[in-house]
Amino acid sequence: MKFKNCNVLITGASAGIGREFARHLADRARSMILIARRDDRLIELADELHRQYPKLDVHIRKVDLADLVQLQNFLEWLDRENLEVDLLINNAGLGDSGSFAKSDPVRNNQITLVNVTAPTSLTRHLLPQMISRGQGGILNVSSSAGFLPIPGSAVYAASKAYVTSFSESLRAELRGTGVSVCAVCPGPVATEFQQVAKREGAKPNIGPKFLVVSVQQVVRDAIAALESDRPLVIPGFAMKLLMLLGRLIPLPVFRWVTRVSPRKRGVV
Fold first, then answer.
1. Is the pLDDT of residue 9 over 60?
2. Residue 32 · residue 26 · CB < 8 Å
3. What does the alpha-carbon distance between residue 53 and residue 47 come to, in Å, rounded to a whole number?
4. Catalytic one of 156, 157, 159, 187
5. Do 30 and 7 form a contact (C-beta atoms < 8 A)?
6. CA 251, 107, 185, 133 torsion: positive or negative?
7. pLDDT above 80: residue 14
8. Model confidence at 267, in pLDDT bands (50, 70, 90)?
9. What is the spatial distance between Cα 231 and Cα 164, in angstroms, rounded to a whole number?
């Protein structure tokens, strides 16, 4: 994937990792399509990018990817505007923290729509154009939570397992087409994600400090991986090591560890 003069679409671009992707690529991209639920943040970001890179063509759209009507309207808008996309960054994500038995069914559906349905639909819509041009890139922001079942984050972890598997399968299908696919699987990152994912009355838990990486490192590692056509990247040495050990542990052992952990069954 070559980023010079590329046309980029970034979901969840108003904050965190998505916003950093926009800032990181602005000096190389020809145009950007930035979508998110909060248009005030998008306007601020677009103004910032225009001040620094006056030649950059920036389009912003307020889209809630948990709403299938809004998603379809956005896809139709892309077609009407005849906008090319060379690089699709499926970054938008939604999470939840707590026992599944006490989870909000509406929230569970929203997680599935944002984390699974939206990237699948966007990729399907844009991929044929990339294949016909013989070049393109798809960067899916997954999570290290997708490597193992995570009690307390059942729906979120399962949705990210889908994203990682989807990326790997798609990459194999696209070999020789000129289109690269990469999944970035960060562990804890200091963003608003934990605040949004926490339930009422609970404190956000980002995890041990030695595992936390910055949004800047996530974006740098992700772009470098896609540029060198690597299939997957886990930002941060500590997280890489932990995930390697975790994937080597047999599932029966993992089940035993979760059974004897101090977390009480059914308690948030």
1. yes
2. yes
3. 10
4. 156
5. yes
6. positive
7. yes
8. very low
9. 10
Q: How confident is the model at residue 245 (pLDDT cuts 50, 70, 90)?
A: confident
The closest alpha carbon to 170, from 210, 143, 139, belongs to: 139
**Confidence band of 266 (pLDDT split at 50, 70, 90):** very low
The per-residue pLDDT for range 119-174, each reduced to its tens digit, is: 999 999 999 999 999 999 999 999 999 988 888 899 999 999 999 999 999 999 99
Alpha carbons 260 and 268: distance in angstroms, whole number? 17
Neighbours of 136 (CB within 10 A): 25
- In the sheet where 31-36 sits, what is the strand order? 57-62, 31-36, 7-11, 87-90, 136-141, 179-184, 232-233
Q: Is 53 a catalytic residue?
A: no
Segment 171-174 long-range contacts (CB within 8 Å, at least 24 positions apart): 171/231, 174/131
Instruction: Give pLDDT tens digits for 171-201.
Output: 999 999 999 999 999 988 876 655 555 456 5
pTM for this prediction: 0.87
What backbone torsions phi and psi does residue 239 show, to the nearest 5 degrees? -70, -35
Distance CA 225, CA 22 (A): 17
Q: At which residue do the structure tokens 């307020």 appear?
A: 62
Going by C-alpha positions, the residue among 68, 252, 246 that lies closest to residue 157 is: 246
The dihedral through the CA atoms of 4, 36, 13, 162 has a sign that is: negative
